[in-house]
Specification:
With 255 residues, the protein is mainly alpha-helical. Helix content is 80%, strand content 0%.
Length: 255
């Protein structure tokens, strides 16, 4: 995997040395922070109201009312942001005429694909890490449960991996970065809302659609539950999209 790491370092250098990463990260942090503190403000308002009903056993849970909704909103924000990061993975190579050189290099295609994925995933992980100051703020002022926070970050990284894998695949289909971003966004949004169709389907079909939905598997992570089936789903989804990317590159190598 040495070659994959070399590809990843090259791409990470292009990300961190360009204004794209800093602009996208700033937009992500501003949006997420605004939503987080709005949720926290509403929680404080609810706490004040609950204090007026002493003796009525009114209790508020910081994890359920602040942390869980904030991670939901982070997932939506990443759905919008990640296609902007992944759109350049292969589309920029094609635009700058280095794509043919990349494919003709002695590096295996699987190492190229994994290197591109690893670079984007590292950038996204940095963004998520930078956003953790909001949770740190809660840890300083409150007493949230640590377990659901840890599992929520794990689930968020896995879901982000799915976004990245779809984005890398979309970028391999075209030399236009805007088109790549639109395709990636459309795929991610479709996998987000596919479970909604289960409301008008039969019980068996509804179960299948909910299983395919990225959101359904995230719910248990937010509750502090890590099920093997959910982890396997996300990893399989990532590997499937990387496999599709590999097939696209392989078909273009022999043209």
């Amino acid at each position: 995997m040495r070659n994959a790491w070399a590809v990843a370092k090259r791409d990470m250098g292009s990300y961190f040395n360009s204004p794209v990463f800093y602009v996208v990260t700033t937009v992500f942090l501003v949006i997420y922070s605004f939503i987080f503190f709005q949720i926290l403000t509403f929680f404080n308002f609810q706490s004040v109201q609950a204090g007026q009903f002493q003796g009525m056993n009114v209790g508020l849970n910081l994890n359920d009312m602040v942390i869980e909704p904030s991670f939901h909103n982070m997932a939506v924000t990443l759905l919008l942001i990640i296609p902007v990061l992944t759109m350049r993975s292969f589309a920029e190579e094609k635009k700058s005429k280095t794509y043919a050189l990349l494919l003709s290099s002695p590096i295996h295609l699987r190492e190229i694909v994994f290197g591109k994925f690893l670079a984007c995933m590292t950038v996204v992980a940095v963004m998520i890490l930078l956003s953790s100051y909001c949770i740190g703020f809660l840890l300083l002022l409150g007493q949230p449960e640590i377990g659901p926070i840890v599992t929520s970050y794990l689930g968020m990284l896995l879901m982000a991996g799915c976004y990245v894998a779809m984005g890398v695949f979309a970028s391999s289909l075209t030399d236009n970065q805007i088109i790549a971003a639109v395709i990636a966004f459309g795929m991610s949004l479709f996998m987000w809302i596919i479970g909604w169709a289960g409301q008008a389907a039969s019980a068996e079909m509804a179960e299948v659609l909910q299983f395919l939905s990225l959101v359904d598997h995230m719910q248990r992570f937010l509750k502090g539950i890590v099920e093997t089936s959910d982890v396997i789903y996300y990893l399989t989804f990532i590997l499937f999209n990387l496999f599709l990317t590999h097939r696209v590159l392989d078909s273009e190598r022999w043209r």
